[in-house]
């Protein structure tokens, strides 16, 4: 009887773990949760066309004092109009106007085409998803018009010779407390590694290819989330650079067709993966153990002062900070976007209202974890966060490694700006 009970509970435990950690692996396949269609899909679920975001300010005077002013009905969509009380002008939430087809349908067409599907096949996929079948010549006009935004179009002729459209992007759903959709662009990574400046990034490719088979999913059930750990890193000898990046233009273009805020990350990641020429992966799982942290401190001399764990009793409650006496046994997280460009690996995080955010600790831990998992040096990483208006970046090595007894140093950027490296524990934005 005792053996029967043990066997019974063991099977329940195995089934529970299997259910919690199930990975639904899809090679650019259709799912009801906004994944990409294939021509073999038989599902009849269709997305709503003409989705648009709610206006945040007047595009003419940037005033937030506006009211709704009726609807503009078009053949395929209905657009909300707004009246600004400051300048008395009428506007919409979309900055691209004069289009017969809705913007979310155009964006999906660009996604499918740059994954390697032909013009005719892409139009069939759009008809299957939205119930609208644009002409192949119309889709060709879209690809030509937005070629400056979709820089991957330059790599597309080489990529379609390497992989079929269904195999270009690997998509995996991971149940890590919540569902995270990992995407990895095989062809883009292979092409980027051919650049001499990226010749040492082979370990990153190996890690991304092994996510589906070797990720320890139980870690993400048991470990603390990196976003819940507030580490008081010393901000001396580091500079945060504020600039305009191509990611701002891509975000602005995509977000105009996203109606609900909860779909912003998903829409951005899909567009970046399919159309950007340097984004190789999204929602990348990373983790770092206590032994790794002690190695960083004792062997490499990195400065990691103390740890504060943030907790909420309920979602609307105030954040409670709890000081930890020693490094956590395990910390986990998911990187929004990974880019390979200019001889560096860029770790990017989309933050609405980026100008008010300072996710330095979170991004630094991401870089430390990915450095340990890939074996790449920390100076080969760069971190940044952005929205449709602002972009900020810094070197994570400058956060954790401090040079002692050094002279004052000034940094000159390509724009001609000269900034003195701060020696005090303060945030310096240039």
Describe this structure in words.
With 430 residues, the protein is α+β, with helices and mostly antiparallel strands. The chain has a domain at 220-420. 31% of the residues lie in helices and 23% in strands. The protein is built from 14 helices and 18 strands. Strands 1, 5, 6, 7, 9, 10, 13, 14, 15 and 16 form a ten-stranded mixed sheet that branches. Strands 2-3-4 form a three-stranded antiparallel sheet, with no helix packed on it. It has a three-stranded antiparallel sheet with strand order 8-11-12, with no helix packed on it. α13 links the parallel β14 (344-350) and β15 (381-386). The relative contact order is 0.12. Mean pLDDT is 80; it is low at 19-46 and 312-317.
* Cα distance spanning the termini: 71 Å
Total helices: the number is 14
Beta-strand portion reads: 15-25%
Strand segment tally: 18
Gyration radius, rounded: 24 Å
Task: Please identify the structural class as seen in this structure.
Answer: alpha+beta
Q: What sort of overall outline do the alpha carbons produce when their principal axes are compared?
A: globular
* Main pleated sheet: 10 strands, mixed
Q: Which regions contain 5 or more consecutive residues with pLDDT less than 50?
A: 19-46, 312-317
The helicity comes to 25-40%
Mean pLDDT, all residues? 80
